[in-house]
C-alpha cells in the first residue's frame, strides 16, 4: 500500500506510521509517502488523521504502477523528455575502446541530429579472460565527448565498487542486465536524482524487473527508465529473444518510460535493422543501438554492432515509421 | 545435400541414386531432386554423369534454404502473392461459432478491402472439457463465406484423422502449433499443392520449425508459409513471447514467406495493436489477427480477440507503417 | 466438476445432465460420471435426486486429481503393477532396427529379471531426411520378442494414421512428446483399455500434460501413466532438462503413476547412470532407459543410448537405491 | 590457453608473457600460470624456454576443466573435505531472524552429527518492501553458533558493499544466484583463500556459471564450489527447475565440487524430501536444505523450508541412499 501523509506531519509521526507497517518512507514530489509491503491492505483507523490518501496495490509494483500515477514519467535527458512524442535514439559502441573511435561515433551522432552517446567503460563480461573495459579512462573519454559535442552520456555501472564513479560522470546511469538485482547499485542510484536506465536481466520476470525499479523509486529517485534487451529462451539462433509482449505489458501497467535494445537481443548485426523498425513501431520512449566504426575489430560484441553505413541506411527507414506512430527521433 | 539430376534420367537410375544415399526424391519445378541427409557431403564420382548440379547444406534446412533457392517463394492466395510487396492481413475469430458471427466477420473483411478469412473448425484444445470446434459444419460455413464474399479461407487441421477434409475445404491449410510435428498431417500436405501455413510450436526451435516445412517441401508441395506465433518462456504476464529475433533469422536464411500472429503471442487484446504495428514494421509477408464481433462471449481465446471497433482503429494505423516499409495490405 | 450419478439413472437423464453443463459422460468403475468444465462450481438443485456425489475441482485436472481419487492408480503391465512398491525398469533401443539387435536386447532384459521391452517402430523425427522407423515390421519384431521371451511390449505411436496398428500390437502404447496434444491419438487411446504412457511434451506445462491424460481418462480408459522426459530450457549442454520438481508436483497432486526417462533428458550416455540413480531415489513407478547393443551404429539417438556393459554396471547400483526407498525393480 | 611457466622466471618475464597474450597471471599451487583467452591456441616459439607446459582449452572453462586438472578439488570446510566420499549436508533457515531460532537450528545440526550451519544475513530480495536481512547482527549470531557448537558457517554476500564483512565472518562465502556475475564480489573472493560457494543464476548457462568460478580461480583462490539451485523455465508449478542434467555435465567436465539445493528449486516444502533423496543419489559433494523451527512465521521463503520434524524423517531416509552410493554424510 502507498500511503500519502498530510502536510506538516512530524518526523516522529512519520516514523511511527512506517514502523507500524514495515513501510519505506519516500519523499515524492513535495509529499511524504509511506510504502508498505503490498500484502498490507488496511490501515488502523488511529492513523486516519495523518493520512491524506492511499492506494492499495495488488503486488509490489507500487510507485511504478499506473494505478498510483497514471501518466508516464517525464524524465529529461538533454533535449529529450520521456512520456512525450519524442523517441530517444541512443547509439554508440559496446565499449569505449579509445578516443578516435569515440570521436567518429560522436560525429555520426551529431550528423543525424541525435542528442546522446552510449558506450560502456566497465564491461560486465562473463569470462575473466575477455576485455574488461577501460574503466575511469573510458568515463573521461565519454565526458570529453559530452563537452565537445554537447551529447548526453549513457554508460553502465557493473558493480557497487564503482557506482559513485559512474554517478559522477554519466548523465544516465545504465544498470546492466547482470547487475539489476544489485542492492548496492540500486540503493546508490536511489540516492541520486539522475536518470537511471535499468536493463532487464535475461532471466528476469517483468514483475522482478519493475521491482528493481521500485528500489530506486522508493530510495527517492523518481527518474527510472526500463530497458528491454532480450530474455534467455531455448532458441539459440539469436543471442536472446526480444520480448515485445513484455513491452506491451510494461506500457499498459507501469508509468515508467521504456527503451528497447534490439542489438543485444539479436546478437547479430544482420537482424538489427528489421528489429529496430519493429521497436520504433511499438511507440516506445527510446531505442538503444550498438554502432561501431569497425565492428570487425571491436573488443566486445563484435558480431552485433552496426557499422556507420548500415546505421545511416537504417536511420532513413526509421524516420517514416516514427512519423507513422506520431513520434520524432531525438 | 540436394542433388539435381539431369533431364531424362530413368526411374531406375533415380531410385539407385536415392537408395545409395538414403535420399528423398522430389519433383521440383520440372526437375528431379534427390535430397539426402545433410550429413552427406560428397557423392561418388560414378554418379557424375546423371548429376546436373548439387548444393551442400550445413543442416537439414535444405529446400527451404536461401543457399538452394535465394528468392522468397511466390505463393498465391487469392489476390495475394508472397515474396512481393504485399502483406496479407488475415483476420477472423479463433473458432467458427455460428453463421451470424461469420457473416459479421466477412463483412468487416470486405469493408477493409482484405482478401481472406480465418477461423478454426477443429480446435486443438488442451482440455477435453472445453469447446472442441464445430468440425465439418464449421468448414461448410467457411466455404459459404468464400462463395458469398470471394474470400480465401484459412483454417486449421488438428490431427491426421481429418486432414483430408480440411484439404478439401480450405484455400490455405493451417497446421497448428501443437500439430506441427505430426507426420500424418505433414505428409498429407506434402501431397497437396495448396498453400500450407505451418505455425511454430511454442516449444519448437527455429531449426525444427523449418524442418517441419522440409517434410512438406520434400513431399512435393513447394507452397509452405511459416507462421511465428510466440514461444513459451519463463515470462507469464503474456501468454507466449513473440520471437521477432527468430523472424529476422528466418527472413535471412530461408526462402519461406513468414506470417506473424501477435494475437496468440500476447494472449490479451490490449497488447495486440502495438504488437501488430511492430510486426508490420518487420516487413513480413503477412499478419494474422484474431477478431471477434463480441470477444466477451467467444468460446475460446476470449481474452485475446479484438472487437471490430478496435480492429478498425488498428487498421488505420497499420496503413502508414506498411507504406513506410514499402508494402501494401491485402 | 465431477458428478457421480446414482445407479439406475436412465440414459436420457444422463444425457440431459451432461447437456445442461457441457459435460462429458464417463463410465468409470461401475459408476457413471459426468465431468463438466472445471469452471462450473454449482449444479441446479433440480438435479439433486440423480446425483450421488460430486467433486469441485479448481482446474481441468479432474479425473487425475488426488482430490477425486486419492490413491495412485493400479495399472498392470505383465508382472508389474503401478501404485505398489514395484518400479518398472523398461529398457531397449531407441528404434527397432532389426531382429538380431532386438534378440540381444531381449536377452539382456531376461538376464536382469526384467519384464518389459521398449523400442520405437514409428520414429517421430524432426527431419524428413532421417531414419523414420521400420513401421509395422518393427511392431512384428516386438511381438516376436513378447512371444519368445514373455516380455511386455512398450512402443510408440507417432500420429493418428497408425494408432490402431500400435494399439493392436503393443501392451503399452507410448504417446511421444511430439504427439501428446494429438486428439486423434488421445481419443483412440481413450477407447482402449490398454495402458497408455503419455510422454510430456518438451514445451508442455504440467497442467497441459495432465490435461492430455484427462482426454484418455474421460474417453473411458482409466489406465494412464505419465512419463517425464525432460523439458526444453535455455541450457544447451544437455539435450533437455529433466524436471524432477515437476515429478514431485505430479506425485503430490495426481493419482497417475509416473515413469522417468533420463536418457532423452540428458541426450548423452555419460550422464544417464547418475540421473537414473537420482530417478530411482525419487520413488517413482518406473524408469525408461535407452540401451543399444552398439550405440555407435544406432540409426537414431546414438549419443544417448547405453551399451550393454554400462547398463549392467548401472543395474547393480540401482538395486541398493531401490532398496533404500523400499522398492523392487521389475 | 593455460601456460605453466618454469620455476624462477623473473617478474618482468612473466609480465611480458602475460602482456603478449592478454593473459591473467595466477599463482597456483607453487606454480605461476598465465591464463590467456581460450581463443589463443598457439604461443610464439620465442617463449619456449620459459614455458614448462601448457593446456589448450576449447572454451573459457580453463582452470576448472578436468582437462587441466583431472581430480575434483579438495576443499576443506571443518570436518568435511570435498572430492572425497563425504557429502556435506548443510542446513539452516533462509535468513537469520534471531538468536533463539539460530540456537534451535544449531542444536538440530549437532543432534544429527552434522558440521555446518547456513543462513543469510544479507537477503537479496527482489522487492524493496520485503525483509532485507539482519545484516552484521546476523553475521554475529552465526559466529556465535560457530563458537558455541563448533559449526562451520555458510552465509551469503549480496553485493560488493559488504563483501569484506562476509569474508571476515564466514567460513564459506556463498555468492547468491542474483550476485554471481558481480565482478566486485568475484574479485574480492579471488583475493581470499576461504571456500567460495557460487550459486548458479536462475538464467545462467552452465558455461557462464563455470566462468564465474574462473574469476575467483584466476584471482588466486583455488577453493570454489558450485551450487545448482534451479533454473527458470516455463514451468510455474514449482519455483524453479532443478537441473540435474546440468549437474551431470559439471561432474563430467569440471574439477569443481558440486552442491545441490533442492529447497530453492522446488519452492515448496512438500517436494523437498523426494528431491533431496534424488540429489543424494547423484553422488554429489553436498546438499543444502532450508530448515526452520517454524516455517509458517519465517520472514522469507516460508513455503519452502522444512520444519525440524520433517527434516528428522528426511535425514533417516538420506542415510541409506548415501550408503548405496558409497558416501557418508557430514
Number of helices of chain A: 10
- Overall tally of structural domains of chain A: 2
CATH class of the largest domain in chain A: Alpha Beta
- SSE-based structural type of chain A: alpha/beta
In the CATH hierarchy, the architecture of the largest domain in chain A is Alpha-Beta Barrel
Which homologous superfamily in CATH is the superfamily of the largest domain in chain A? Aldolase class I
Any idea of the CATH topology of the largest domain in chain A?
TIM Barrel
Short description:
Chain A is α/β, with parallel strands linked by helices. Helix content of chain A is 32%, strand content 19%.
Descriptive overview:
Four copies of one chain form a homotetramer. Chain A is α/β, with parallel strands linked by helices. The first copy, chain A, is 32% helix and 19% strand. The first copy, chain A, has helices spanning 11-20, 99-111, 136-149, 163-169, 183-190, 206-218, 244-253, 262-266, 272-281, 308-324; strands at residues 2-5, 24-28, 31-35, 51-55, 76-77, 80-81, 86-92, 116-118, 152-157, 172-175, 196-199, 224-228, 258-260, 286-290, 328-329. In chain A, the strands form three sheets. Chain A has a nine-stranded parallel beta sheet with strand order 8-9-10-11-12-13-14-7-15. In chain A, strands 2-3-1-4 form a four-stranded antiparallel beta sheet, covered by helices on one side. In chain A, helix 2 (99-111) runs parallel beside helix 3. The longest helix of chain A has 17 residues, at 308-324. The two termini of chain A are 37 Å apart. Chains in contact: A-B, A-C, A-D, B-C, B-D, C-D. At the C-D interface, helix 7, helix 9 and helix 10 of C face helix 7, helix 9 and helix 10 of D.
Amino acid at each position: 500500500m502507498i500511503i500519502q501523509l498530510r502536510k506538516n506531519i512530524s518526523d516522529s509521526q512519520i516514523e511511527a506510521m512506517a514502523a507500524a507497517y514495515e513501510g519505506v518512507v519516500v519523499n515524492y514530489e513535495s509529499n511524504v509517502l509511506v510504502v508498505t509491503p503490498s500484502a498490507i491492505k488496511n490501515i488502523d483507523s488511529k492513523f486516519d488523521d495523518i493520512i491524506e490518501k492511499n492506494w492499495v496495490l495488488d503486488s509490489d509494483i507500487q510507485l511504478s504502477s499506473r494505478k498510483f500515477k497514471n501518466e508516464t514519467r517525464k524524465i529529461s535527458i538533454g533535449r529529450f523528455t520521456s512520456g512525450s512524442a519524442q523517441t530517444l535514439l541512443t547509439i554508440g559502441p559496446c565499449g569505449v575502446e579509445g578516443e578516435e573511435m569515440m570521436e567518429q561515433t560522436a560525429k555520426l551522432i551529431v550528423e543525424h541530429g541525435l542528442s546522446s552517446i552510449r558506450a560502456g567503460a566497465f564491461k560486465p563480461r562473463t569470462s575473466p579472460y575477455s576485455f574488461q573495459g577501460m574503466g575511469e579512462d573510458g568515463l573521461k573519454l565519454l565526458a570529453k565527448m559530452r563537452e565537445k559535442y554537447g551529447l548526453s552520456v549513457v554508460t553502465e555501472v557493473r558493480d557497487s565498487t564503482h557506482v559513485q564513479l559512474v554517478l559522477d560522470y554519466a548523465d544516465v546511469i545504465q544498470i546492466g542486465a547482470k547487475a539489476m538485482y544489485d542492492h548496492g547499485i540500486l540503493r546508490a542510484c536511489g540516492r541520486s536524482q539522475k536518470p537511471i536506465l535499468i536493463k532487464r536481466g535475461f532471466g528476469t520476470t517483468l514483475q522482478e524487473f519493475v521491482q528493481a525499479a521500485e528500489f530506486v523509486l522508493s530510495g527517492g529517485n523518481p527518474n527510472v527508465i526500463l530497458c528491454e534487451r532480450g530474455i534467455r529462451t531455448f532458441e539459440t539462433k539469436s543471442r536472446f529473444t526480444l520480448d515485445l509482449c513484455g513491452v506491451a505489458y510494461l506500457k499498459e501497467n507501469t508509468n515508467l518510460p521504456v527503451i528497447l535494445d534490439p542489438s543485444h537481443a539479436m546478437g547479430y548485426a544482420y537482424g538489427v535493422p528489421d528489429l529496430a523498425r519493429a521497436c520504433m513501431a511499438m511507440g516506445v520512449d527510446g531505442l538503444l543501438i550498438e554502432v561501431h566504426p569497425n565492428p570487425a575489430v571491436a573488443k566486445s560484441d563484435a558480431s552485433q554492432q552496426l557499422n556507420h553505413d548500415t546505421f545511416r541506411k537504417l536511420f532513413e527507414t526509421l524516420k517514416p515509421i516514427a512519423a507513422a506512430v506520431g513520434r520524432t527521433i531525438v
